[in-house]
């Protein structure tokens, strides 16, 4: 006990404030209570900040998606529609909590809770700014990967307990997809870990002379794709494909349970953007502006990228998703790991120029491997033009031109 | 190369992000309508109507109900029936405009509004008093004489019975 | 020991986000693969053919609007041509040009709806749908200037159209014709090269040309399978023989071909409308036909190339003011008969996409 969490200034300030709180010369707060209260306040702040920013994020997403569609988003409630998430929350809280007949009650009720807890737990190890984090685990990255895997179980629980064929379809597709994408996701961050020498996220941020997005392009792309699939985000949202199986595993949920699923689906992109910003874009580091603001901007950048992808491209079919994971992402990630291992052997303590050389080699290999993959799948990806009928027309039709 | 087609798509979406949105904020801005718009209201000039009931006969759904009695005077020439009941049932009307096409005296015109929602079905029937008192802004559908005068119901003044004839 | 699996019968019910109306499919799945399929429709039956027997010939025009509610002008055109064939009336030239302009603009609008909803079913989260509908709004504004309504027009009458186009219509039409090719280019850049669209729609839902001809399929679905049959070229009606345009054909007959057909047909329709605007001359817009048309005793069948296929009306007259029998040959209903050939053996996701690419409209199927 005690001020053990070293450099975390927010926590240590709170702890020492509680311990030093003297009334009439006597300290009424024992040490264990100060430890507990300080920790509780920090955790409470972080969780609430995450959830509130996420609910504001729903508003931002709907407005920006509307702008992508050349229309306005919701702008009725409150100035510019800012009260829309509150209206959504009130609506969900006052809805009837349906309980269909064929469900398994314990499993049905536990599934939303098991789904949302890992999404928030990810924020426990991410540094939000200089010396601001909840805990500096020396196995931080492993913790994140382990915790996000628990979400898979929750999806399967929800699909199974609903007693509905469509939900079961959705749950089975989801489990197959999520398990397949664990492998490229883990292998792509192995490159980052090799270059840093540690699994702790705080160390990874400090070890980046040149941001890892430049040095490890393959790793970034693979992690981005695999993490999008892990979150069931477009183009991999076969799990909740509205046009096919109505709502997949959360068809039978209504009211706040469904709200919990949606909230968790929404916190996940923020979590993954935060991880991406920490691993690949140097986290909170940056000139001029305060570190928290830099972190926030980087998270918003990655989040906007995910939103842009969601607005533009259609979704893939389940067997195409699996083929993509095993036949494209997996070999590329193995190539990335081997290449990084060789580079780390040759240059164990790289200077800035050596970072840039490594970057150049990595970019060359990345482009080369993508081109090789395109050549292999060339005939499936080729576009076609229609031919024209030769009946009754004497214009440029017969030459096939338009 | 993989991904080039998708990149092209991204550029189009980004381009549309910066275009002005297509939305009309309805209750604050009024929706612009053409002058021939067949709206939900009807414009009826009782001075021109002779009670011939061609509109009622021509309606495919039979929703116009006309009851007349002898002894009216037509403002244009001669005698006509006096119209006691002229009900149009908006609940079943499909706004096809065949009644307006049928009227030989230009007494019935389509209106140009669309905000006539009511809370129960019975109040959807327009009785004769409402037709007499309503704002008279006829749509120019099937009325070429109004179009020649370049009349637009959305911005124009109400027309009186002697301005709408052929 | 072999794995024992059990086929599952699922009801893709009448209420579903992507069945294009109230349409029901009873599908038997083995895992994700479709084994057997049975379409059930009739949920939107309104008795149009029977109602037509109790209305006069001019009043039936309002009924035909509501058959294929996305493409009302084509329905009007087919019906009015049948009555004119029965009564032996020939509409004036200007009327025919106006009819062809309306029909081709309506074809563009209908194909925009089809493309938008195909991509919505594919999961592109509404972006192409919104872009297509934004252009469709402009076409509907043009129609509002022309005939006062936006969806159910009742524009055509026996002997021509009922009223001439106002001056502002031609100005707006010129502006539209100038803008639209750029928008179609934008759609192509967004969609036609998109690798995900290619993998989802190529070699999926293949319909061979023999099967298509055996099942009496018509419209873009038939042309995508490679069969060269377009009623505007084979049996030209109205003024199509005076206009130069091309008919696109596909090669393989999969979903990608059908999508390409519609995009290309939109371009060709723009070409037809520009030609009509150049060739149109002034004159009357309606032949001198009384309101209560009494065609002589007999029957007649006439067809047009609607956006979904061959739409035909078979009218039997007994000399009175109402048709004795009105039979509607609706393209969507006939195109549905080939659904089993296209879908069995594919997967659930392919089924949704193929249903979207055939472009059925339940108003027509059920009448």
Number of strands of chain A: 1
* CATH H-level superfamily title of chain C: Cytochrome-c3 Hydrogenase, chain B
Beginning-to-end CA distance, first to last residue of chain C: 52 Å
Secondary-structure element sequence of chain C? EEEHHHHHEEHHHHHEHEEEHHHH
Report mean pLDDT of chain C, rounded to a whole number.
Answer: 87
Overall pLDDT of chain A: 82
Shape verdict of chain C: globular
Structural class call of chain A reads mainly alpha
H/E element string of chain A? HHHHHHHHHHHHHHE
Name the poorly predicted regions of chain C: none
List the quaternary state of the chains.
heterotrimer
At the third CATH level, what is the topology name of chain C? Cytochrome-c3 Hydrogenase, chain B
Q: Termini distance of chain A?
A: 78 Å
Reconstruct the topology from this structure.
The complex is a heterotrimer of chains A (about 400), B (about 170) and C (about 375).
Chain A: H1 9-19, H2 31-68, H3 84-93, H4 105-121, H5 140-161, H6 165-196, H7 201-206, H8 212-215, H9 217-230, H10 242-245, H11 256-280, H12 291-312, H13 318-346, H14 352-376, E1 387-388
Helix pairs in contact in A: 1-2, 2-11, 4-5, 4-11, 5-6, 6-9, 6-13, 9-11, 9-13, 11-12, 13-14
Chain B: H1 4-17, E1 42-44, H2 54-58, E2 64-73, E3 79-89, H3 98-102, E4 108-110, E5 125-126, H4 128-133, H5 144-148
Antiparallel strand pairs in B: 1-4, 2-3, 3-5
Chain C: E1 8-12, E2 24-30, E3 33-40, H1 48-52, H2 57-65, H3 72-87, H4 93-122, H5 127-147, E4 156-157, E5 160-161, H6 167-191, H7 195-201, H8 209-214, H9 220-224, H10 231-234, E6 248-249, H11 255-279, E7 298-306, E8 309-317, E9 325-329, H12 331-335, H13 339-343, H14 348-358, H15 362-366
Antiparallel strand pairs in C: 1-2, 2-3, 4-5, 7-8, 8-9
Helix pairs in contact in C: 2-3, 3-4, 4-5, 4-11, 4-14, 5-6, 6-11
């Amino acid at each position: 006990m005690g001020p053990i969490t070293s450099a975390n200034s927010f926590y240590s300030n709170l702890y020492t404030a509680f311990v030093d709180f003297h009334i009439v010369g006597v300290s009424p707060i024992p040490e264990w209570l100060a430890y507990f209260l300080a920790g509780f306040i920090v955790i409470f702040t972080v969780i609430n900040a995450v959830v509130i920013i996420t609910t504001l994020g729903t508003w931002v997403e709907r407005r920006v998606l509307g702008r992508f569609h050349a229309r306005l988003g919701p702008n009725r409630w409150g100035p510019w529609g800012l009260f829309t998430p509150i209206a959504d929350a009130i609506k969900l809280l006052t809805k009837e909590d349906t309980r269909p007949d064929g469900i398994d009650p314990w499993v049905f009720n536990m599934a939303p809770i098991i789904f949302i807890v890992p999404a928030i737990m990810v924020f426990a190890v991410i540094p939000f700014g200089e010396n601001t984090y909840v805990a500096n685990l020396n196995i931080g990255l492993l913790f994140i990967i382990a915790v996000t895997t628990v979400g898979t179980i929750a999806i399967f629980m929800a699909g199974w307990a609903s007693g509905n064929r469509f939900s079961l379809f959705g749950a089975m597709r989801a489990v197959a997809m999520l398990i397949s994408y664990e492998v490229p996701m883990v292998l792509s961050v192995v490159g980052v870990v090799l270059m840093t020498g540690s699994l702790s996220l705080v160390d990874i941020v400090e070890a980046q002379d040149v941001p890892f997005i430049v040095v490890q392009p393959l790793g970034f792309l693979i992690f981005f794709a695999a993490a999008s699939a892990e979150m069931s985000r477009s183009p991999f949202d076969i799990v909740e494909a509205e046009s096919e199986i109505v709502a997949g595993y959360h068809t039978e949920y209504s009211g706040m349970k469904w709200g919990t699923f949606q909230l968790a689906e929404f916190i996940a992109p923020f979590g993954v953007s935060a991880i991406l910003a920490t691993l690949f874009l140097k986290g909170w580091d940056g000139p001029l502006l305060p570190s928290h603001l830099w972190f926030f901007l980087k998270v918003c950048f990655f989040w906007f990228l995910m939103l842009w992808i969601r607005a533009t491209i259609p979704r893939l079919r389940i067997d195409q998703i699996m083929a993509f994971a095993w036949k494209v992402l997996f070999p590329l990630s193995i190539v990335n790991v081997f290449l990084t291992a060789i580079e780390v052997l040759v240059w164990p303590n790289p200077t800035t120029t050596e970072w840039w050389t490594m970057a150049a080699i990595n970019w060359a290999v990345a482009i080369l491997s993508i081109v090789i993959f395109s050549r292999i799948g060339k005939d499936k990806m080729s576009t076609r033009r229609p031919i024209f009928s030769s009946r009754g027309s004497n214009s440029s039709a017969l030459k096939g031109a338009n | 190369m993989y991904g080039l087609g998708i990149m092209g798509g991204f550029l189009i979406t980004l381009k549309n992000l910066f275009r002005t949105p297509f939305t009309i904020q309805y209750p604050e801005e009024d929706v612009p309508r053409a002058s021939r718009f067949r709206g939900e209201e009807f414009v009826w000039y009782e001075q021109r109507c002779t009670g011939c009931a061609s509109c009622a006969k021509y309606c495919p759904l039979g929703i116009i109900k006309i009851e007349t009695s002898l002894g009216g005077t037509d403002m244009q020439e001669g005698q006509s029936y006096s119209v006691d009941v002229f009900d149009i049932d908006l609940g079943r009307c499909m706004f096809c405009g065949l009644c307006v096409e049928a009227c030989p005296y230009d007494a019935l015109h389509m209106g140009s509004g669309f905000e006539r929602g009511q809370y129960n079905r019975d109040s959807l029937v327009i009785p004769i008093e409402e037709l007499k008192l309503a704002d008279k802004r006829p749509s120019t559908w099937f009325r070429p004489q109004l179009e020649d005068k370049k009349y637009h119901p959305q911005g124009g003044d109400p027309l009186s019975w002697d301005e709408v004839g052929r | 020991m072999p794995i024992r699996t059990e086929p599952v019968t699922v009801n893709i019910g009448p209420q579903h986000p992507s069945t294009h109306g109230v349409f029901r499919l009873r599908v038997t799945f083995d895992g994700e693969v479709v084994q057997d399929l049975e379409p059930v429709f009739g949920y939107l039956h309104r008795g149009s053919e029977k109602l037509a027997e109790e209305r006069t010939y001019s009043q039936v025009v309002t009924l035909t609007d509501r058959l294929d509610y996305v493409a009302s002008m084509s329905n009007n055109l087919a019906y009015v041509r049948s009555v004119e064939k029965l009564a032996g009336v020939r509409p004036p030239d200007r009327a025919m040009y106006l009819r062809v302009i309306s029909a081709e603009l309506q074809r563009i609008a209908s194909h925009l709806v089809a493309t938008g909803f195909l991509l919505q079913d594919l999961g592109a989260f509404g972006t192409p749908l919104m872009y297509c509908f934004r252009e469709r709004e402009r076409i509907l504004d043009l129609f509002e200037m022309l005939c006062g309504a936006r969806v159910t027009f009742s524009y055509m009458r026996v002997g021509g159209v009922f009223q001439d186009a106002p001056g502002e219509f031609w100005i707006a039409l010129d502006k539209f014709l100038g803008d639209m090719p750029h928008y179609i280019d934008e759609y192509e850049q967004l969609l036609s090269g998109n690798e995900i669209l290619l993998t989802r729609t190529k070699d999926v839902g293949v319909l061979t040309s023999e099967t298509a001809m055996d099942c009496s399929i018509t419209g873009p679905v038939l042309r995508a399978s490679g069969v060269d049959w377009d009623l505007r070229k084979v049996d030209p009606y109205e003024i199509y023989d005076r206009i130069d345009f091309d008919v696109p054909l596909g090669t393989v007959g999969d979903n990608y071909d059908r999508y390409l057909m519609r995009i290309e047909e939109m371009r060709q329709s723009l070409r037809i409308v520009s030609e009509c605007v150049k060739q149109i001359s002034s004159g009357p817009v309606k032949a001198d036909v009384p309101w209560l048309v009494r065609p002589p005793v007999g029957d007649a069948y006439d067809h047009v190339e609607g956006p979904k296929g061959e739409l035909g009306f078979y009218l039997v007259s007994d000399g009175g003011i109402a048709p004795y029998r009105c039979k509607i040959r609706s393209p969507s209903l006939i195109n549905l008969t080939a659904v089993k050939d296209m879908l069995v053996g594919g997967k659930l996701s392919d089924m949704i996409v193929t249903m979207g690419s055939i472009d059925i409209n339940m108003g027509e199927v059920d009448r």
